[in-house]
Amino acid sequence: MRHLLFLISSLLIICSCNSQSSGKAKVGGPCEGCEAVHEYGDMKLASVDTLPGYHTNTPKMKISGTVFKKDGKTPAENVILYIYHTNRKGIYETRGDEKGWARRHGYIQGWVKTGPDGKYTFYTFRPAAYPNGREAEHVHIVVKEPGKNEYYLDSYVFDDDPLLSKDRRKRLKERGGSGLIWLKQQGNLLIADRDLILGKNIPNYK
Q1: Confidence band (pLDDT; 50, 70, 90) for 23?
Q2: SUPFAM superfamilies given for it (predicted)?
């Protein structure tokens, strides 16, 4: 009887392990806070968005680009991009009425959804580095494409940022392509372009 129970128990463990190993791995791996890509509420998303604080902060910044499918050539439609960043003091500023992940990400956040041409644009302002000076200035970005779970891409970082050392540049993983951008002055705006390639350097992407 004990032998029979041992065999049954062993079979259950094997079946359980096989079931877990054959489960679908999450695209992009762990991603704390990526669920915020869904927290746009009743907003009607367009390919262009202006983040809170744009009109009252400087330097103002415009980030544009095209989202491509994995081949790097075909524009990707109906892709949602979510970005957030610190204020000019390096803080993820809140107003006190935030819900969900905005309690941590702050209210300086925005969402866009690509059209048939795959293009997107964010109007915002240049964030400051964290007060401790240990992290380069950056803008977080999360992507949600049809048929995939949400995942993060390399943050936008700035070529002229003195905190972006050679060592840090070498460690950039280029998820979705390089996040390193060059800002150019155009009137009262700092202009930057970054194209995104879905699945590029993204774990478990098929």
Answers
A1: low
A2: Aromatic compound dioxygenase (SSF49482)
